[in-house]
Amino acid sequence: MNEKSLKILEFGKIKEEIKKYTVTSAGKDLIDELKPYDNIYEAREHLEETKEALRLLVTKGAPPFEGVYDIREGISRAEKGSSLMPGQLLKIAAMLRSARRFKEYISHKEEEEAFRVIEDICEGIVPLKKLEDEIFLAIEGEDEISDRASSTLYNLRRSLKDKNASVRDKVNSLIRSYSEYLQDNLYTMRGDRYVLPVKAEHKGAVQGLVHDQSSSGATLYIEPMSLVNLNNEIKELMLKEKAEIERILAELSAKVHDNKTAVRNNSNIIWELDFIFAKGKYASASNCNAPTINDEGIIDIIEAKHPLIDRKIAVPMSMYLGREFTSLVITGPNTGGKTVTLKTVGLLHIMALSGLMIPAREHSTVSFFKEVFADIGDEQSIEQSLSTFSSHMTNIVNIIEKADEKSLILFDELGAGTDPTEGAALAVSILEHLRKRECRIVATTHYSELKAYALKTEEVENASVEFDVETLRPTYRLLIGIPGKSNAFEISRRLGLPDFIISDAKESIASEALKFEDLIQSLQDKSIKAENYAREAEVLKLEAAKLKGKYEEKLYSLNNVREKAIIEAQREAKSILREAKEDADKIIKDMRELEKMGYSSDARQMLEEERRKLKEKLEKAEEKANKVKEDNGEELKDVKEGQEVFLPSLNQKVIVLSKPDNKGEVQVQAGIMKISVKLKDLRASKGASKEEKKIAKREAKLNLRSVPSSVDLRGMDSMEAVYTADKYLDDAYMGGLAEVSIIHGKGTGVLRNAINDMLKRHSHVKRYRLGEYGEGGTGVTVVELK
């Protein structure tokens, strides 16, 4: 698509807005490259991915981009075999973690909604959990390597810690010995070596190496000879520590290099997902919907707002084109919104064809165009010595050369800037030529000749921007099918122009022209109402169809549940009767055995009578069970609107909405459903029956697996970190650990403070402290458990 139109329609400003929602600069670069796609399939697919991103944001919350940065430079260095810095490795691990978590983020149960396009994108992610864990285990911060990175490093740091303790003891002893020669009774460091601050006049009293002096020269910093060997040993250990760190970084960098294809692929997918979710976040913030894209040249935009105008003040605009007519000529007063209408139509098409959702109502339709041409605004060029008319005509010549049936053309004030008669004639000729090419055209004008052209030409329609003569203000509403009335006489009268001047002006205009203007006014009034009713009816029809389908599905489901309940009740009743019959038969059998033992005839007669009664009762119970007729309360003779009654067939209370009709049926509200039932099927409302509720027992399942001695919270926000640390402390306590480490990194200290606040109140914590040298320093909190 031509860059000129993208610039005129301010698509660049939309991209700048979307950039605000990205996480990485790589995502911003993808937005910079965004432009309308070359075919309708790509446009629909990228629009679908934006819809899916918005649905995921709504249903699953923020995507797992925590700790993700632009690491293209680090990956590039790793691919060349270079050794990476700790911060670069840490960011690569964060990216790998984000990619792995995306697999979990988009996962769903079989019966749940799928996310086809984003799932296909995430299919290419290769989880590298082992590499990710190795980096997080070895590196604690931007410039800090963990003691756990290797056993050699752990031993070196432990030796270094012991050696430093020995030196400090030795130095403290020397301070006591040389206290009279020192400026202060404390030691200091110069170049990683322990030194004493000796007064200049006593420098001979302390044998050693001079490393530095104060700015005044009064103090010399001397390393006593007895410390030289110890300091040398510390220096040697520090060099070994540095070499081990370089080896660890080289080893981790080599592992990244070995997996360079997967790392590069995962990072590219994360950048693309960042780009996609930025589009989804923008759609959410701007209250956008996904339009339907067709390739038939049909446009039907419903209540759209220009995306760069404040939504609180922007007036919704509806516009359609492509079915009954292919060209639209918009007339109306200046500042009435004609140019905004043009820009809105053009910009929304560019957005939709670039895979973005648009700020318009649901069911809006845009068409796929290979080109959107726009001739809008004052393009007078001082450098080229071109007038406004010449500049516009140069642009129009270019449009005529390139436009075809797959083009949308937007003309603002076509033919303006020259003699009105010639300009109008040119405008009509240009529109007619492009119409014959089957282009889709929206043009604004002040020329009456173009109104007449639209009235008498097939596939061309008039439109106007509404103007309120009473308030002398435009309403910014677009009225299709009605040419704009100039309203010059009415506005002049409102502004105080004498009536005799207006009368003279009217006499100078042909009577046919005045009648034409009056006809326009009449048509405008009638069409506003008709258009509003038609569009509202269409929207309500679509919503009603959707609701109908939804409730039909619920009713079908309800009927299924009801039938199953009835069958189950019948089965249960028959089972109870069968057991009762078996018990009765056993009783009768026992009775006959007793008869044999010798009872009188009266006793036998009484037994026979009881047996007959028992048989009758069983038969009646069986009959009731088969009919499944239960006494659910008193039968009603009449009901009132709003009365609460009981409906046995649904086993719930309902509200009466209407009196019985001639068929004896009433309409009732059952939950969200309105249904018609027979009056005789209703019963007087009774107290709520006590339903037995099955209480799911919660079983405490102990996690008996081994619990690690530390937990890494870097890259998490405060809430997630506190939750993770709390759960980890519970596991560590159950696992019998006495002391654990919580790695939160140094950073700004926000995460550390949140963890410390949680530890103060935690029931398993005995005491806690910041890590010492070799334990991770202030980037780690060591917790002692009860």
Automatic annotation (TrEMBL):
| EC number(s) from the headed UniProt entry | 3.1.-.-, 3.6.4.-
The GO molecular function terms of this record are: ATP binding; ATP hydrolysis activity; ATP-dependent DNA damage sensor activity; endonuclease activity; mismatched DNA binding; ribosomal large subunit binding; rRNA binding
Q: Which residues bind ATP?
A: G332, P333, N334, T335, G336, G337, K338, T339
Give the signal peptide, or none: none
**Alphabetized SMART domains for the sequence:** MUTSac, MUTSd, SMR
Task: Provide this UniProt record's keywords sorted from A to Z.
Answer: ATP-binding, Coiled coil, DNA-binding, Endonuclease, Hydrolase, Nuclease, Nucleotide-binding, RNA-binding, rRNA-binding
* SUPFAM superfamilies per the UniProt record, alphabetical: DNA repair protein MutS, domain III, P-loop containing nucleoside triphosphate hydrolases, SMR domain-like
Q: Mind listing the GO biological process terms from this record?
A: mismatch repair; negative regulation of DNA recombination; rescue of stalled ribosome
Pfam families, alphabetically? MSSS (PF20297), MutS_V (PF00488), Smr (PF01713)
Report which superkingdom the organism of origin falls in.
Bacteria
Q: InterPro entries of this UniProt entry?
A: DNA_mismatch_repair_MutS_C (IPR000432), DNA_mismatch_repair_MutS_core (IPR007696), DNA_mismatch_repair_MutS_sf (IPR036187), MSSS (IPR046893), MutS (IPR045076), MutS2 (IPR005747), P-loop_NTPase (IPR027417), Smr_dom (IPR002625)
Q: Residue ranges of the Smr domain?
A: 711-786
Family stated for the protein in its record: Belongs to the DNA mismatch repair MutS family. MutS2 subfamily.
Subunit annotation: Homodimer. Binds to stalled ribosomes, contacting rRNA.
Function text? Endonuclease that is involved in the suppression of homologous recombination and thus may have a key role in the control of bacterial genetic diversity. Acts as a ribosome collision sensor, splitting the ribosome into its 2 subunits. Detects stalled/collided 70S ribosomes which it binds and splits by an ATP-hydrolysis driven conformational change. Acts upstream of the ribosome quality control system (RQC), a ribosome-associated complex that mediates the extraction of incompletely synthesized nascent chains from stalled ribosomes and their subsequent degradation. Probably generates substrates for RQC.
Q: What is this protein called?
A: Endonuclease MutS2
Mind giving the lineage of the organism this protein is from?
Answer: Bacteria, Bacillati, Bacillota, Clostridia, Eubacteriales
